C-alpha cells in the first residue's frame, strides 16, 4: 500500500456538508443572517410588525432547535418519533417547577432540563427502540401522551390550567428578562445545536447512526450493536430538545401540558419534513415556514387550520425532499 | 472451524432446517448447493444470528455461538455477505468500507471528530478495495454503481471486518457471465487465506471453487464430498440435478 | 366497596368496548393495507356529530344512529378514494403526516359546520334510567346498552371475519397481499370496503359515547392514543388482540383511577398517596404498555404473518 496517496484517501469527504451544495450554501447563509438581523433591525427601528418582532422570531428559534434535535434521529437515524414535544414540555417544566419553589437560577434550570429530558429519552427509548416501524411511531406517541397526562395530574403545578413563571431563569452573567438578550441567547443556542449536529453526524458515532438508517441488518452483520447507538442518539436528541423546552418556557413564561400534546409533536415532525430530513439547516427552514404560514393564515381567518391541513396533505402528496430539497435542486438546475 | 450440529428450525409446522450437521475445516472453501426452497436462506440466518434455531448448536472455533447476537458474532471473526445487496446506498464506496473497518476499531461512541478524514479507517478500507478491484471507484456513491460492482462492494465490506470466516450468500446472484467470472477470480484470491462457506446457485462457479460441497434438499444435507464425488453421486443427480 | 368495585368494573368494560370499536378499525386498516391512520379519531368525532344532528332532525336517537352509520361510511369511502388510496405505497411517515393534516381539516370543518360548542344528545326516556342488575347494584341503562352494542359488534366481526367471503379475503389480505391480487380479486375495492368498515366502527363508538360526553371538537384526539396503546398491547393487525387489549386497557384505566390511591394508602402516607395516586393512575396504561413491550415487542397476540 505504498502508492496510497492522501488524495485517494481523502476522496469524497463531503457528506453532509454544513450547508449542503455549494450554491445552497449562499441561500442558507443569507437566510441565517436575515433571521438574526431583521428582528434586530425591527427592534431598534421600532417596527411594530408582528412577523419580524423579536418575540415572534424567538419563538420560532426555540421550535427550530427542537426541530433540529428531532432531525438528528428522524432525518439521520431514521427513527420516526411522534413524541418529541414531550421533551419541550419536560424542559419547560424544569424551569417552571423550580421557579415555583423559589429556585430561580438558570444554572439549575438548564442543566436540569437537559438532564431530565435525556433521562426520559433513555427510559422510553430503551423500550421503544426494541420495536420497529409503525410500532415505534405509536409507542413514542403514547409515551409523550403519558408525560402529558402526568403533568396534567399535577394539581400543585396548575394541572390543566398551566403554570405561570413569574421570573425567568437567573444567570449571573446575562439577564434574559431582557427580550433582546433572550433572542440572542436563543439564536446562539440554535447555531450551537446545528453545529453540534453537524459534528455528530460526521463523527464515527454519526456514521454508525446513518448506517443504521440506511441498512440496520448490515450494520449488525458488520458487528455494531445498533440498539446501543440508536438509543444514544435518541438520548442526545432528547436532551437537545429539553434545551429548546427550557428556552421556550423562559420565553412564554407560561407553561402547560398543552406544550407536549401530540399535535405539537406532529407539528415538529412536519417542520422537519417540510424543511427536508437529513439536511442540517432544513429543520430551520421548516420551522420558519411552518410558523409563518400558521401566523399568516391565522390573521386572515379563525379557521386557519383548514387551509393549513390541506397544505399539509398536499405537501405530503407532492413535495419530495422538503424545502431544502427544493432549494438545492432549484439552484442546481440553473 | 465451524461446526453445525443437529440444527433444526421450523415455521408453524413447516420444517425449514431438518437436523443439519456440517463441519467446515479451517482454510477450506465449502459450498452449499440446493434447489430453491431447500432452506439455504434459513440456514444462513441461523449461522449469522438473525434466527435462533429450535434445536442444535452452532460452534465456531470451539465456542458455542448458537444464541450469540448477530453483532457479537462479527467480533469472533465471522463475516457475511447478503444475497440481496446490502450496501449503504447513500454513501461513497470508500465510506461503505470505512464503516466496516470502523466496526472493528474500538467502540464508536466518538461524537466529535470527523470520521471521513481518519486515515486509520480509510487506509485499510482502500487496501480492501484494491483486493476486490474497486480502488478506482472509491469516490463513487454506491447507488451509482452497477449491480456487479455492488456485489464486489458487498464482499469488500465483509472483508474489511478482518474475518477469519466468510459466509457468502449467493455472491453471484443476478450477475452476468463476465461479472461472475470476475467474482470467481476475487474468490479464488481469497481461497486459502480465509475459511469460506459459499451458498451459491451458479454451478460452474461452485465446481470451480469449492474444496467440498454439501447438498441441501428439503432442509436436509443429502450429501457432502469433493466436487467430483458430488458430480457422480446418484442421490444428488436424482434429487437435485434432475437426472434419472 | 365490592358494590363500587362492580360498578367501576362495568364502567371499565364500557370504556373497553368503546376502545375495541376504535381499535378494531385501526388494526384492520393496518393489518390489511399497512396504513397508519391517525385521523381514525376524527371519524369517531364525525360519527358523534352526525348522530347529534340526526337526533334533532328525526327526534330519535336510535333512528339517528341507524342513519349516521351509512353517512359515516360515506365519509370513509370519500376519504379513502380521494386521498388515502394514493398513500398506501408511501412509507409510514407520509401516512402519519397526511392523516395528521386530516385531523386539522376535520376539526376545523366540524367547527365551521356545528360551531365551537359541544352538542348534547338527548336520549329517549327508556334509555335514560338506571337498572338494578344485582341487589344493591344499580347501573345506568345506557351504559349497559353501550356494553351490549360493543359485545354484539365484537361477535359480528368475529362472524364476519371467520365465516364470510369478505372475511376470508380480509384474512388472506392480511397475511399475503400479493396472493389476494393474484387470485383476481379487486384489491382496490377490498381496501375501500375495509377502510369504510373501520370508519363505521369508529363512528359508532362516537355515536355511543356522545350522549354521555356530548359531541365535541377534538373528542377523538385523546382516545385515539389510548386505542393505539390497545393495539400495541394486543398486537397490531390482530382482531383478537384488539378485543382483549381493549378490555384490559379499559378495565385497568378505570379501576386504576378509582382505586389506586386507596391501594397506595395502605403502603404510603395518606397525603403522599393522594398526590401520587392520580399521577400514577394517569400513566398506568402506558406503564402496562411498556411492560408488555419489554417482554413481547410484538404485543400479546401478534398476527401470524408469513
Q: β content of chain A, as a range?
A: under 5%
Biggest interface, chains and residue tallies:
A-C, 42 and 46 residues
Order of helices and strands of chain A: HHHHHHEHHHEHHHH
At the first level of CATH, the class of chain C is: Mainly Alpha
The largest sheet of chain A is: 2 strands, antiparallel
Structural class of chain C: mainly alpha
The SSE order of chain C reads HHHHHEEHHHHHHH
Radius of gyration of chain C: 20 Å
Tally of alpha and pi helices of chain A:
13
Low-confidence segments of chain C, ≥5 residues, pLDDT <50?
none
> In terms of quaternary structure, what is this?
heterotrimer
Query: What overall geometry of chain A do the principal axes of the alpha carbons give?
Result: globular
- The unreliable regions of chain A are 1-15, 330-334
The termini of chain A sit apart by 42 Å
Quick rundown:
The complex is a heterotrimer of chains A (334), B (244) and C (306). Chain A is mainly α.
Structure description:
- The complex is a heterotrimer of chains A (334), B (244) and C (306).
- By secondary structure, chain A is mainly alpha-helical.
- Chain A has helices at residues 6-9, 22-45, 54-74, 85-100, 106-128, 133-152, 179-202, 204-222, 226-252, 262-275, 282-300, 305-318, 322-333, and strands at 163-164, 254-255.
- Chain A is globular, with a radius of gyration of 20 Å.
- Residues 1-15 and 330-334 of chain A have low confidence and may be disordered.
- Chain B is α/β, with parallel strands linked by helices.
- Chain B has 2 domains: 1-77 and 163-244, P-loop containing nucleotide triphosphate hydrolases (Rossmann fold, 3-Layer(aba) Sandwich); 87-162, no CATH class.
- Chain B has 9 helices and 10 strands.
- Chain B has helices spanning 40-48, 70-75, 93-102, 119-131, 147-160, 177-190, 203-209, 227-232, 234-239, and strands at residues 2-11, 14-24, 29-33, 55-60, 63-64, 78-81, 165-169, 195-199, 212-217, 220-225.
- In chain B, α3 (93-102) packs across α4 and α3 (93-102) packs parallel to α5.
- The mean pLDDT of chain B is 89.
- Chain C is mainly α.
- Chain C has a single domain (15-125, 141-295), classed as ABC transporter involved in vitamin B12 uptake, BtuC (Orthogonal Bundle), CATH 1.10.3470.
- Chains in contact: A-B, A-C.
- At the A-C interface, α5, α6, α10 and α12 of A face α4, α10 and α12 of C.
